[in-house]
Amino acid sequence: MLSKVKVVRDALVPIGPKVYHYHADGPQGNYIVWAEDNQGEVIHGDGELEEQGIQGTIDYFTRDEYDETADKIQDALIKAKIPFAITSIQEEESTGYIHYEWVWEVV
User: Fold this and answer.
1) pLDDT tens digits along 71-95
2) Sheet holding 97-106, edge to edge
């Protein structure tokens, strides 16, 4: 399971210096937070677990409108063959950040 999750980390780390796992402690500037959240698709055979997918989220926080880093995140996921869906893009009025959120799954 953990080797599958590390593929996501390895895809994101080259994008920028501010990539956090689970939460960001006092972030400044633009940053990425990623985490595994739950079990995804599973395949059972003969009463045993054959394959286990892990789902998670990637959140990108930016103050730059039309920030190309959002495209870089998607390109990195495509290159690593990690299926994903963007689930939200919103402006957080309280922080001034534009917040992108993707759901991913590794098997």
Assistant:
1) 999 999 999 999 999 999 999 999 9
2) 19-21, 31-45, 48-62, 97-106, 84-92
